[in-house]
Amino acid sequence: MQAVVYRRPFEVAVEEVPDPRIEQPNDVIVRITSTCICGADLCAYEGRAGAEPGAVFGHENLGIVEEVGAGVSALEQGDRVVMPFTVACGSCRNCRAGATGSCLTAAWAGRGAGAYGSVAPAPTPSAGGQAEYLRVPHADLNCLPLPAGTEHESDYVLLSEVFPTGYHGCRLASVSPGETVAVYGAGPVGLMAAYCALLCGASRVFVVDCAPERLARARDIGAVAVDSSAGDPAQQIEDLTGGEGTDAGVDTVGFPVPSGTGDGAEPAAVLDQLVRTVRPTGGLGVPGPCVRCGPDGVGGHAGPGTLLVAMDTLVEKGLRLGTGRADVRRYDRQLRDLITEGRARPGFVVSHELPLVEAPDAYREADQRVDGYTKVVLRPGAPGRRAAAAVQGRGGGMATQAPTERDAAGRRPGAWP
């Protein structure tokens, strides 16, 4: 089968790899029809996540069940399914408590559950879904059935990670109806967090970023766009809320934040700004991502994977901080039904739908923010017809920019801050 294979930093290729096969009675084989390029994939693409040559990326996957193991009871050949990005066993202590994003059986190195295409050692499938086929273990738990057909494909595929992660960020921050919410970052997860805050009944949602096209998308869904390049975003939001700050906040930028100074002061810049933005006793949600290496491939000033956070302000304000990967299975059925009933359309974040064979170009251009790339959906088996690839009404019609070189800090054009 064809798959997106990592070669070296800033280089992937579409190559022939062995087809997956049923290995355990509870496995299924899924023929992939849609698979997304995620920000975590870009971190691995950049060489920041320890990927080895030959790794197959892709943890946001949707497709059709092709083969069913003898121990699978809830799925049949031909079922249309979407897979949560983390693998869960369903029987460990955390899974039984609903914390499937922290499955103890699939955990690696004492951290969170393993994901498809994981580049770290984990007792889960190492192959990702940016391929024609994917093996799914514990399939009765790890496959969410979808309505048959092809309708809402670019909405449903986001149930694998981005839509539930945005909702999870709001849950971590305890967003309630009528509240004001600040979301830092207007990438796909940030836009989803803002969208979910509005679905939860927030009265006003402020979205902070410096990329004009992303701020425009935030305005389109009814959020208040805050341009971080125009001044201190915490001060801007304070002014817009009559000096109070917001009731809750979500950090979707994660760690590390590229630093142009090299003095180690910026890795926690966004989280510190969020601490200053939210009013005393408010809630903070940090759903990730967190990469242990910076843009140059090494850890931050205080050591790999560490942050220099203004804990004194966080504690003095009595803020509640929630972190962790999304427990997708806790939310995916309800979010699926919102899509099915026409109450939610998360696919607005999708800017491009491309054939799998064009993945190398898509990675390069998404990494460099060329042509307004926000969220890319790859279609295995689709012919390479690039002229029709941009999704009209979701990013189509934007002028193509020439690729821009990174700065000395490794910052991509339009990257935070």
From TrEMBL:
- Composition skew (Low complexity), residue ranges: 383-392
Q: Which UniProt keywords apply?
A: Metal-binding, NAD, Zinc
Q: Which GO terms describe its molecular function?
A: metal ion binding
| Co-factor(s) | Zn(2+)
Q: Where is this region: Disordered?
A: 383-417
Domain spans labelled Alcohol dehydrogenase-like C-terminal: 188-255
Q: For the Alcohol dehydrogenase-like N-terminal domain, which residue ranges apply?
A: 24-147
Q: To which protein family does this belong? A: Belongs to the zinc-containing alcohol dehydrogenase family.
Which named protein is this? Answer: Alcohol dehydrogenase GroES domain protein
- The organism encoding this protein is Geodermatophilus obscurus (strain ATCC 25078 / DSM 43160 / JCM 3152 / CCUG 61914 / KCC A-0152 / KCTC 9177 / NBRC 13315 / NRRL B-3577 / G-20)
